[in-house]
């Protein structure tokens, strides 16, 4: 069963449940309206004495409220009065309201249904499983989209980008993955300083792209080709190149050979 089938089943369950609730509410509204009409017709045919007696009775809502809360009339409270007496404050042996107990029993039923659906029959995925399926689906979609990309450059023809969005993307990756060796400002730590004109493996855009793509054997610089597509590699390369001449405080000294761009 694929993710789309599970999603459609869940949507059908939610829609059906919502329709049932809406229909139940409509039936309740119609029933209340009909009762009000019947009550009006009955009052029209009653005498004044009967109307007075009817008015003296508690309203339907008040009676229903007393019933839902299992309230005892004042005349019957002595039967449920406890012997406790705290500075004149006495206690009644009242039970929990039936509506509260009904909700409590409803949560028990819901819990049993939940266990049967998610843990016994496993007909629906748990939150963690659903998250993993959605992440896998997103990763597959991302891989498909990246596979459909057409790149008009390679490691020998790549050029530096000045687009702010692409530079921001390269900066985010650099600060997350590269700053541990080169510092967030590129001044160098375990790795060399990237803000001056001295380079170990060449200082052109193509050279920096190749280092990021293929790594440097025998060093902590790993290849990122398997994790970054060419556009991501170019974004990181462009950001590294943008660090040239920033001269951050505490930067390491020259390391490598002086690179002079060709005219």
Brief account:
This protein is mainly alpha-helical and 263 residues long.
The tally of helices reads 8
CATH class of one domain reads Mainly Alpha
What do we call the CATH topology of one domain? Answer: Cytochrome Bc1 Complex, Chain D, domain 2
Overall shape: elongated
Tell me the helix content: 55-70%
Low-confidence stretches: none
Q: What is the N-to-C succession of helices and strands? A: HHHEEHHHEHHE
Key structural traits:
about 5% strand, two-stranded antiparallel ribbon, mainly alpha, 4 strands, Cytochrome Bc1 Complex, Chain D, domain 2, about 55% helix, about 260 residues
Q: Could you characterize the architecture of this molecule?
A:
The longest helix is centred in the N-terminal third of the chain and has 42 residues, at 3-44. 56% of the residues lie in helices and 5% in strands. Among the domains are: 1-57; 164-258, Orthogonal Bundle (Cytochrome Bc1 Complex, Chain D, domain 2), CATH 1.10.760. The chain has helices at 3-44, 48-56, 60-68, 98-120, 127-147, 164-182, 205-214, 230-242, and strands at 81-86, 89-92, 198-199, 257-258. It is mainly α and 263 residues long. The strands form two sheets. The protein has a two-stranded antiparallel ribbon. The protein has eight helices and four strands; from the N terminus they run H-H-H-E-E-H-H-H-E-H-H-E. 12% of the residues are buried.
């Amino acid at each position: 069963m694929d993710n789309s089938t599970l999603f459609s089943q869940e949507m059908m369950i939610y829609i059906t449940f919502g329709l049932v609730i809406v229909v139940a509410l409509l039936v309740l509204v119609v029933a209340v309206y009909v009762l009000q009409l019947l009550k009006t017709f009955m009052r029209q045919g009653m005498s004044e004495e009967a109307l007075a007696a009817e008015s003296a009775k508690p309203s339907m809502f008040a009676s229903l409220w007393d019933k839902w809360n299992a309230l005892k009339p004042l005349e019957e409270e002595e039967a449920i009065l406890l012997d406790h007496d705290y500075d004149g404050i006495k206690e009644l042996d009242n039970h929990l309201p039936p509506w509260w107990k009904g909700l409590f029993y409803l949560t028990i039923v819901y819990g049993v249904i939940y266990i049967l659906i998610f843990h016994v029959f496993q007909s629906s995925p748990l939150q963690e499983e659903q998250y993993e399926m959605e992440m896998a689906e997103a990763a597959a979609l991302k891989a498909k989209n990246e596979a459909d990309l057409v790149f008009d450059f390679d490691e020998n023809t790549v050029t530096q980008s000045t687009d702010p969005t692409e530079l921001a993307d390269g900066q985010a990756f650099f600060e997350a993955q590269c700053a541990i060796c080169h510092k967030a400002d590129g001044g160098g730590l375990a790795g060399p300083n990237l803000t001056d004109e001295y380079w170990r493996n060449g200082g052109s855009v193509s050279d920096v792209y190749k280092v990021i793509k293929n790594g440097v054997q025998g060093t902590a610089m790993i290849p990122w080709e398997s994790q970054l597509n060419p556009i991501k590699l170019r974004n990181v390369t462009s950001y590294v190149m943008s660090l040239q001449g920033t001269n951050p405080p505490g930067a390491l000294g020259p390391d490598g050979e002086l690179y002079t761009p060709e005219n």
